[in-house]
Specification:
The structure is a single chain. Helix 1 (2-31) packs across helix 11 (361-379), helix 2 runs antiparallel to helix 11 and helix 2 (100-130) packs across helix 12. Helix content is 45%, strand content 21%. It is of the alpha+beta class. The protein folds into three domains: 2-127 and 366-436, no CATH class; 132-217, PDZ domain (Pdz3 Domain, Roll); 220-300, Roll (Pdz3 Domain).
Length: 437
């Protein structure tokens, strides 16, 4: 059942992204009166399809191979490698007869749709699921808690964040964003003085292995349990909503960040938790899960700020741009050899595992929004057979005022397809190797 849920989320998420991506190409082509011969979700390899119908000049359908989808635009060299049309004189309704600027718009339309979709999904998740955010001003009342990883790079517990890379921030979560982890400069107030703390460019590796403990957390001096997950160590030990955490073994709990770090570093160990319930002090024994969790959410004594539609959309855009920036930096590290592709590249199995074995809509939409941005970024890379490859040749044509020959485009398309097939095989191989590690 768990596998079915993972696969179901993967197929639904990718189907949404592919349909809307191809719809971008379709609408742009139709706007310039270019004929679209096919519009398919999934591939109809061998001309076998689950469903199809024809309306006007276009055949719409669902193929049997759930690896994406496509639109077949008349007079265009694409992954179908249909060269019969190209033997005939260009027709006015064909892609190849249109001016380069129109063809360029058709090719970037899919990427544009995925970019806008990612921003909208991020904004939607903020508005509908997160609903509010923790302002930095609230955290700065007490300062931050610096975990051991945070202390290694120069943070100290009690620091108050002033700016990141010279820019003030409103949300505390922006101080923990993925883009920050690829190198940034924090200005913090420490004992009345302004101090700079440098985040090294490879710090994202350290955070990736942190078991959910961030390098900095809010230094709220006390916290209570907001909810307990059934079947996990905290619930099994008898901890309950509203319990106030006092000690782990003999260590006094001064912040939720400290609590998370102690729990994470105690994976597989038995601990004694001292908690306050009403006026009673309780001692509970529990064994921390092997992944370093006990299964609670904390209620922290901070005033949250509601997003509202405008802020949700604005921060959806910011989060999307941060994620795109991190992807660009990540690809740069793979190309430069700083990062191994075998550790970074994931195929469909890895993506399905990220969705997880539980259908949680907030997580589903966040990952789908993230995939939409990744799809936009990967598709615009200048690799033949991708949208970016077509864009590259069109830009060359616009600059030189000479259109590459059909033979050049055909060979480039074949080379691009071989490259993409190799990347896909490599990514799936990575997924399989991770399963057996």
């Amino acid at each position: 059942m768990n596998i079915l849920i993972m696969v179901g989320q993967l197929i639904l998420g990718l189907s949404i992204l592919v349909i809307l991506h191809e719809l971008g190409h379709f609408l742009a082509a139709r706007a310039f009166k270019i004929r679209v011969e096919k519009f398919y979700l999934f591939f109809d390899a061998g001309n076998f399809k689950l469903f199809s119908f024809k309306k006007g000049e276009t055949e719409y359908g669902i193929g049997w191979l759930p690896l994406g989808g496509y639109v077949k635009i008349a007079g265009m060299i694409d992954e179908s490698m249909d060269k019969e049309q190209l033997k005939l004189p260009p027709q006015p309704w064909e892609f190849r007869s249109r001016p380069a600027w129109q063809r360029l718009i058709v090719m970037v339309a899919g990427v544009f749709v995925n970019l806008i979709l990612g921003i909208l999904i991020f904004g939607f998740t903020l508005l509908h699921y997160e609903k509010s955010y923790l302002p930095l001003s609230e955290v700065n009342k007490d300062g931050i808690y610096a975990s051991s990883k945070g202390k290694e790079i120069g943070f100290e517990t009690g620091d108050k964040i002033i700016s990141i890379n010279g820019k003030p921030i409103e949300r505390f979560k922006d101080a923990q964003s993925v883009d920050v982890l690829f190198g940034s400069t924090f200005e913090v107030e420490r004992n009345g003085k302004i101090v700079s703390v440098e985040i090294p460019e490879d710090f994202y590796r350290s955070e990736a292995s942190s078991r959910g403990v961030r390098f900095i957390e809010p230094l709220n001096f006390s916290f209570r349990i907001d909810s307990v997950f059934p079947g996990l160590p905290a619930a099994n030990a008898g901890l309950a909503k509203s319990d106030k955490m006092l000690k782990i073994d003999s260590i006094e709990i001064k912040s939720y960040g400290q609590f998370k770090e102690l729990i994470s570093n105690s994976a597989g160990r038995q601990l004694t938790i001292q908690a306050l319930r009403g006026n009673d002090t309780l001692q509970k024994q529990l064994t921390v899960d092997s992944s370093g969790i006990i299964g609670i959410l904390a209620s922290i004594p901070y005033t949250l700020t509601p997003y509202g539609f405008g802020k949700a959309l604005s921060y959806g855009y910011k989060d999307a741009m941060d994620m795109l920036s991190a992807n660009v930096k990540g690809l740069g590290k793979i190309i430069s050899g700083e990062e191994k592709a075998s550790e970074s590249l994931q195929g469909p199995i890895g993506i399905a595992q990220i969705y997880g074995s539980q259908w949680i809509w907030a997580k589903f939409w966040y990952i789908t929004g993230l995939l939409s941005l990744i799809l936009a970024f990967m598709n615009i890379l200048p690799i033949p057979a991708l949208d970016g490859g077509h864009v590259l040749f069109l830009l060359i044509e616009i600059v030189t005022r000479r259109k590459p020959s059909d033979k050049v485009l055909e060979y480039a398309q074949m080379a691009g397809m071989i490259i993409l097939l190799g990347i896909m095989v490599f990514a799936i191989g990575n997924d399989i190797m991770r399963i057996f590690r």
